[in-house]
Amino acid sequence: TQSTWVETAVEAAQAAIGAAKTEATCNLPNGIGIVKLMGRSTGFIAAFATMASGDVDLCLVPEVPIVLEGEDGCLPHLQKRIAKQGHAVVVVAEGAGEELLGKSAEKDASGNRKLPPIGVFLQQKINDFFSNQGVPVTVKYIDPSYMIRSVPPNSADSRYCIQLGQAAVHGAMAGFTRFTVGLCNNRLVYLPITALVDGSPRGMRMKGRTWERVLSITRQPNPKSDGTKKLTSGSE
Fold it and tell me: Which of 38, 82, 78, 89 is nearest to 61 (CA)?
């Protein structure tokens, strides 16, 4: 099913990605811009924002293990991109990289598990990698956070929410209970809440269409699954 507010988040993320590209290109040669986007357990916003932008050279999401160096390493990939075009833009979902940084047992005021600082970690690793190569780089890190969370919904999400609300009222008046409304195959349908909860969270497959589309844009290597990630099913 299609989630609400995704279109708005992807649209709002474009400003941050654009700023990262500006910083990277204004610090030629070897400028790098990093943008951290929302996505605790799935990387759909990061993936969709990457596809919408077309300027991203590396996208990192929770569903795909991060490999720093070696044949499938993201750092050698950045080195190749910088050698070719003089700059690079990185988009990373906030929940990516827990296989490297570990899972925190602490929780925030809302009861959510605190996530490791993947953006700062990446910035340091990139600086260290290029320093060891004897290549000076300028790395700028952007965390838009509430600049994306706080924006009002765009017209597409506003229309979608109206449709969901109206369909929910019709379902309740028809006598249905314990259901929610979602868009499946371009049709609004009633779905049992238990079915959604049992399959949550849903994520991308490493060999799915969505992730393959991202790879076709960034040209980054797709690391081999080593069992450290539980690949979610039911989504592209």
Answer: 38
Contacts of 84 (CB under 8 A, 6+ apart): none
Q: How far is Cα 63 from Cα 38, in angstroms, rounded to an integer?
A: 14
Distance CA 116, CA 66 (A): 14
pTM over 0.85: yes
Q: Which two tokens stand for residue 217?
A: 């844009």
Whole-angstrom CA distances from 59 to 45, 52, 185 are: 11, 13, 27
Q: Could you give the CA distance from residue 87 to residue 79 in angstroms, rounded to a whole number?
A: 9
The 10s digit of each residue's pLDDT in 2-55 is 788 899 999 999 999 999 999 999 998 999 999 999 999 899 999 999 999 999
